[in-house]
Structure formats: C-alpha cells, structure tokens
Amino acid sequence: MEHSGFLSIDYNAYGSALNGVNSVYKVVFFTAALIYGIAADKFAVYLFMMLSMLFITVCMGKIKLGYYFRVMRIPAIFIALSIIAVAVNFSATKTGLFTLRLGGINVFVTEKGVKDSIGIVIRAFGALSCMYALALSTPMADIIEVLRKFRLPEIIIELMFLIYRFIFVLLDTLENMTRAAVSRNGYGGIRNSFCSFGSIGKNLLLYSFGKANATYNAMESRGYEGRLAFYSEDNGIGAAEVVLFILYFAVMICLS
C-alpha cells in the first residue's frame, strides 16, 4: 500500500527483520539513545547515532536503503530551510567566505555559519534516525501496547493512533484529488492552480470530517467502548539484546 508515493511505515515495520524483537526493549533502546544523544550534544555522538541507526534499520532490519532515504527526504526539506536561516546573512558591506551582491544588499556566508549548519544537519539526522529506526522496526500496535505498560493515559494513546492513521488516509486522498485535478488541466496556469488548490483544500477538510464520523461509527459497531484493542505478541529479551544495549551505550559514553 502506498501513500503519496511512500510505502506505509507500518507496512515496512511488519516486514522488518527486527519486528520479532521485544517491543519494550526496542522502545527503551531507541528512546534512551535519543535522550542520551541530545543530552551529550556532541558532534561525534550524533554522527555515531546517524550511522549506527542506518546500519540497524537497513542491515539488521532488512529495510530497503532506497525507501529509508525516501522517508528521510521528508524532514530534510524543513532541515534545509533551517540551514539557510543559519548559514546565510545579510550586510551592506562585503564580508564572509562567499558574498553575492543583490541590489544594495550583500548576501554572504561565514565560516561560523557553515560550521553551525553542518552541526544542525548532523544533530537533526542523528535524532531522526533514532525515531525512524523505532518506527521502521516496531508496528504502531506494538508501540501502543508498550505505552499502555508505561501507564500512558488512554485518551492520549487513542488520539495518537487515530491521528497517525488519518495522516495516511488524508495523504492518499490528497494524492487522488491532485491527480484528478492534473488530468483535467487544473494546474494549467496560475489562476487555475490557485482555484484547484483552494478546491482541494476545501474538499479535503469536508472529507476529513465525514471520514472521522464514519470511522467512529465503524468502531462503535465493532464494540468500541473507549479503549483500542490490538493483538500484540512479544518475545523475551535475549542475552544478545542485552549485550548490544551495553556495548552501544558504552560507545556513546566513550564518544561523549
């Protein structure tokens, strides 16, 4: 199943070679790595996180490398915008490593700006790699069961799951609406593009309300009483997982 050109993350999580690993272990491992990496705030730690999580997800989890980079491309757009804001400066005088004259203003890049931008990229992708490693190895139903074991309020779990599901439903609907508009020359010219954009936004909003109501009615007809129930089966934590946990964090501590 595809959503806006991307395979469902849950689809890949179920097919991951790490799907059979204990869910509590995976949630604790990846979350602890993320928290420690943020707390350490060291370039080497973030770089280690980024490369090690890539190895865990692709090599150990058997997730396709091309798909991994495609899902990483989504937040890369926002990271790129933040890099531009940090690296690029404006001045009336010519300065910096590189300067571009635009009218009466100099657009320039400094050495500090370049270093800060590289640091932001490594930090962002190091943190993202932890979250993607968890998402691409643990289905949402298993994560929900782990959160229940940690006594997270039921209303938060329910909202989290429904929002997660609706993101993919709406993306799929948006793709179909956009394809239909393109086939009718809805984006032929600026005026048509704005009209199509507004119509798609309006119809998508109305569709989301209708879909939410239909989903709730379907849940009630199947015995929903305020608690989402999922089948979850966890294996025990083996000696190999314990050793990996200890070695991984030993390396992180040495790098920090």
The neighbouring-strand order within the major sheet is 3-5-4
Measured as a percent range, the helix fraction is over 70%
Rg, nearest Å? 23 Å
Alpha-beta classification: mainly alpha
Order of helices and strands: EEHHHHEEEHHHHH
Tally of alpha and pi helices:
9
Contiguous runs where pLDDT drops below 50 for at least 5 residues: 1-7
Distance between the termini: 41 Å
Main sheet overview: 3 strands, antiparallel
Query: Structurally, how many domains make up the residues?
Result: 2
Summarize the structure.
The protein is mainly α and about 260 residues long. The chain has helices at about 10-15, 25-40, 45-60, 65-85, 110-135, 140-150, 155-185, 190-220, 240-255, and strands at about 1-5, 5, 90, 100, 105-110.
